[in-house]
Amino acid sequence: MESLEGRVFDMVSSTASRVDPDSPTRFVYHEADGVIWGEYAGDTVRTGRFVGTRAGARIDVRFVHALLAGGEPVTGEASSRIEEDPRGGLRLVEDFEIDGVPHMSICAEVR
Asked: Residue 3: inside a domain, yes or no?
């Protein structure tokens, strides 16, 4: 599977919150030697960072971000699977938990 280096993804859906279609959270990915890292911002996120590993089509990351409205930073971990997007490019299907409640989000590659 191709490298995620330099690829950009926008969040298109999430069970944790409503996604603003006019200002979705945008993720920029970097990859080298099985290590994944990047940054994200948009929607309710002022700034965020993630770092983790990739094995084939699976990504495991830890993340931290600050919300636009202030408050405590949000931290967590997530697992994503890389899939072909039927509309072209790739999409990331992410499973994560907030306060013990499982959630899922989908991000589509910006083409």
From this structure: no
Question: Is pLDDT of 50 > 80?
Answer: yes
Q: What is the token pair recorded at 61?
A: 């990351």
Give yes or no for residue 44 having a pLDDT over 80: yes
Quick one: how far is CA 52 from the chain centroid? 12
Q: Looking at the 3D structure of the chain, how many domains does it have? A: 1
Closest Cα partner for 96 from 80, 74, 109? 80
Q: Token pair of 18, please?
A: 């409503």
Residue 27 in this model has a pLDDT that exceeds 90? yes
Whether 2 is in a domain gets the answer: no
Residue 107 backbone phi and psi in degrees, to 5: -120, 135
- 94, containing H or E segment: strand 90-98
CATH number for the domain including 84? Answer: 2.40.128
